[in-house]
Amino acid sequence: MIVQRRRGPLRFSIEKSSQIWLGLPLLLLVAWTTKAFSPDLRSKAGLMARDLDVRLEIVSSGAALWKQLLLPLFTVACVLFIIRWRHLFRAYISVLFPILILGIFLLASVFWSDHPDDTARRAIRQIFLFTSVAGAVVIGRSRNRFVSYFQAASIILLAYESLFLFMPWISFDTYGKFTGLHSTKNELGGIAGAFFLIGVATYRYYAETLKEKRYALLAILGWGLLLVISGSKTPMGIVVLIGGCLLLSQHYVRMLSIGVIGLWLMIIVFIPLALLGFGEAPIDFYRSILPEEALTGRTGIWYHLLADMKKNWMFGTAYGAYWGVGDVPEALDIKWSYYQLLHTAHSGFVDLCLELGVIPTVFWLMIFWVFLVATKDSSDPISQSLIAYGMFHNCLETSFLHGLHFVWVMMVISIANILYSHASKPDLEAKFRSIRDNKKRFVDDGPLDNQRTV
After folding, report:
1. pTM, rounded to two decimals
2. For the chain, N or C: smaller number of CB within 10 Å?
3. Secondary structure of residue 139 in the 3-state scheme
4. What DSSP string describes 279-330?
């Protein structure tokens, strides 16, 4: 290919500049969901002494108008770019349609919601998230540079996050845990764990040159250090488990995701049905094996939430109609209790049952199991790792459908990436390593040299 160059002293390659511009949507999306544009600059010194009413107001407040407009504008920009090429638009529809069905169901829950305005607003935000992610993935994959874009985002955000080490009055909480540009250590821990796994997958499966391996190693060491000083135990345990499996074989990571789905189907379906068949109450059985103080108090939260879950167990309260709406939920209305400070159930699966109901939750898990099995030849180590990470993260934290939570956004990106591979099936026989044979490569303006396929 003849590479044209710009005129002038810089003489920058047009091909190289186009690669940068095509990776910009993914970089902006990831940076926004990590709150890079709106860091928490409040001092952590007096956080625990704040008035409860103020903290509840922070939990239930809506996003600023400019933040609400970013996703629609981002979607429009992506679609305007994609619509220029017919094959890109077909790929966009193929990626978007399966995940958009979930968004349509969330929007339909307005009809049985006690807070339809909140449900509609939050469901529409998820729909725009799906359309934005699908656009960023299709644009990034059109040049087969998706891994490079991910790695660039990781290094840039690592440098930005590390700057807050020099501002301890706003980046360390009252317990001496590093929070970075975020309000809590758990928020930073979820982000650091995801980028750590991206670095491990890149080093193990994608990096070919010494330079690429050094960048991947930098990401592993940097995000690993931030994860350790954050003191967030949940992502620490997850990355050790998934990272070990990833180093052995990427097939083990897929099995972990399927295993988590099977575990939760046992917890919310098969074990309760068996106990009810023997005339026993499931709640009594779970309390006998997990007391309320277990899992750092999470089981106590879950047992309290069962009182509200029983009222609408089939289809829930509707999406986004439980936390941060109206008054404090009845089951948690305990004066001056730490339950009043909650804004999640500290389990994505419990929150799914609360807001979508048991039946849609089981349906969602079964569909996701089918998705993982059906696309086993179309996935890649990074997407597998992030999906497994999200499944484990939601056992003890909440990110599923939780606004623009970073772990949830990365799961949606991974799902869209696998759907793209499954729809176009590029070079499946080469598995996950770089392919030097350009005969089967396909991009909008012809074959390109020295580019990798995900």
Report:
1. 0.85
2. N
3. helix
4. T--HHHHHHHHS-TTTGGGHHHHHHHHHHHHGGGTTTTT-TT-STTSSSPPG
Neighbouring-strand partners of residue 13 = 5
Per the CB < 8 A criterion, the answer to whether 145 and 452 are in contact is yes
**CA geometry: angle 354, 360, 365, nearest 5 deg:** 100
Beta-bridge mates of residue 178: 172
Quick one: 111 exposed, middle or buried, by C-beta within 10 A (0-12, 13-18, 19+)? exposed
Tokens (6 digits) for 174: 């009252």
Q: Which residues of the chain have pLDDT under 50?
A: 1-12, 47-61, 335-339, 426-454
Residue 220 tokens, joined: 């592993």
Looking at residue 377, its amino acid is: D
Report how far residue 180's alpha carbon sits from residue 187's, in angstroms, rounded to the nearest whole number. 9
**pLDDT averaged over every residue in the chain:** 81
Q: What is the pLDDT of residues 255-267, one digit of tens each?
A: 999 999 999 999 9
d(CA 66, CA 71): 10
- 369 and 258 Cβ atoms separated by less than 8 Å: yes
Helix (H, G, I), strand (E, B) or coil at 8: coil
**199, amino acid identity:** G
